[in-house]
Amino acid sequence: MESRGDITFVMPAYNVGRFLEESVGSLQRQTVADWKLIIVNDGSTDDTLEKAERLAAADPRIRVLSMPKGSGSAYQPRKRGILEATTEWVAPLDADDRVEPEYLAKLIARQQETDADIVYPTMYLPPYKGEEERVVTPTDAAIREGVHEGRDCVKFTLNGWRINCNGGLIRKRVYEKAFAENDSSLTYSCADELLTRQIFVQNPRVAVSEAKYFYGPNEESITRKKSRVLFNILINNRELIRLTRKEFGRESEEYLQAQKGAFHSYFDVLKLQNRYEFSKEDLVFCEGLLKEMRSEIEMELLEGNVSRKYAFLYKRPAWMAKSAMRLFRK
């Protein structure tokens, strides 16, 4: 990295007025002060835009953009901010998260040590009600200490995450290539997770840093409210099956893990239907996604690789499996 000032933080922002000042404040407290920030308002209906503009007026490093209309996903405002950045390096930061004061310094040091194209931080839950901070995504020593080819990292993200991919320091050109070579019009809520894998298959060098990224659980986030958005996990897992089949082949470990993740998400969604009352329209939407998922899942591949109980339920109609799962809880 030639210049410390060659870094732009990119922050999608939707109805995060109560978090924004703390998140931006964590950047303003960085021991490395030479950075830029682009906040992209995504159709907020609270005071997010007002607070963002006030922060920008007081700090020339901050720039505020607004999407033409709310996209319903962090993917589009994040993409907008990345493409607007004029620096070689991009540092994603969600507006309800924050970072430690040495965050940027540690990322830079790790990048210079490894010559990596991507350096991820370690994600923590912040201290809460007297509890100590704790790591969200435990990463084993081999992953944490090594430098990895991106394609090898894909398996760390399938059927459970073994590497944290929030935040970090990423070459802008890596993002640009992923946007150019894939459908970048995505608007479903967890599309960022697909983008991570699309970046990895380009085979950038990836390293992990001890820099602390604090994840702020936001109960008002669109991904946490009871709505059809919760079913978007099916879209993401369907796309992961297609990506791993294309990039690694049906005989690969990556494809098997993508299949297992999709299988588990099928039942996760049935559990959501048992837990909440959804509208008829939302249930029809979900039914269509479940049918699409079933067309991608290969049970002959999964036999012996998933629990016998759920393999048995999968062979029954969804309504029957859902009823049986309701009985399991009793």
Protein model, in words:
With 330 residues, the protein is of the alpha/beta class. 46% of the residues lie in helices and 15% in strands. The chain is built from 14 helices and ten strands. It has helices spanning 17-28, 48-58, 75-84, 103-114, 141-145, 150-153, 172-181, 191-200, 232-248, 253-275, 280-296, 299-302, 308-314, 318-328; strands at 7-13, 36-41, 62-66, 89-92, 98-99, 118-125, 134-135, 147-149, 169-171, 205-214. Strands 1, 2, 3, 4, 5, 6, 7, 8, 9 and 10 form a ten-stranded mixed β-sheet that branches. The longest helix has 23 residues, at 253-275. The mean pLDDT is 93.
Helix and strand layout, with pairings?
Layout: E1 7-13, H1 17-28, E2 36-41, H2 48-58, E3 62-66, H3 75-84, E4 89-92, E5 98-99, H4 103-114, E6 118-125, E7 134-135, H5 141-145, E8 147-149, H6 150-153, E9 169-171, H7 172-181, H8 191-200, E10 205-214, H9 232-248, H10 253-275, H11 280-296, H12 299-302, H13 308-314, H14 318-328
Helix pairs in contact: 1-2, 8-9, 9-10, 9-11, 10-11, 10-14
